[in-house]
Amino acid sequence: MQRSIVIRALKTAAVVGCVLIAINHGEALLRGDVSAGRVAQMVLTFAVPYAVSTTSSVAAVRQREGEAPAEP
Questions:
Q1: Cα angle vertex 21, ends 54, 11, to 5°?
Q2: What is the 3-state secondary structure (H, E, C) of the chain?
Q3: How far apart are CA 6 and CA 10, in angstroms?
Q4: Any idea where the domains of the chain sit in the sequence?
Q5: For residue 65, which phi and psi values (nearest 5 degrees)?
């Protein structure tokens, strides 16, 4: 839970999540077709880049510090 890793992951999730939402839900948003299910999908869309960024950053820090990388 290093602050720098969390902040980097949040920034990455914000940018990548917005792009993915525009690609996957853009037409529905323009039509105003925003159901509770679609909102849940959009929230999860931010979780994926956050998890990828965090995992990558932690692996890089561990490698730099000489620790064995975590197994997926």
A1: 35
A2: CCHHHHHHHHHHHHHHHHHHHHHHHHHHHHHCCCCHHHHHHHHHHHHHHHHHHHHHHHHHHHHHCCCCCCCC
A3: 6
A4: 3-64
A5: -85, 0
Condensed to tens digits (0 to 9), the pLDDT of residues 10-36 reads 999 999 999 999 999 999 999 999 999
Digit-coded pLDDT (tens) for 43-69? 999 999 999 999 999 999 888 888 665
CA gap 34, 45 in Å, rounded: 15
* pLDDT, position 28: 95
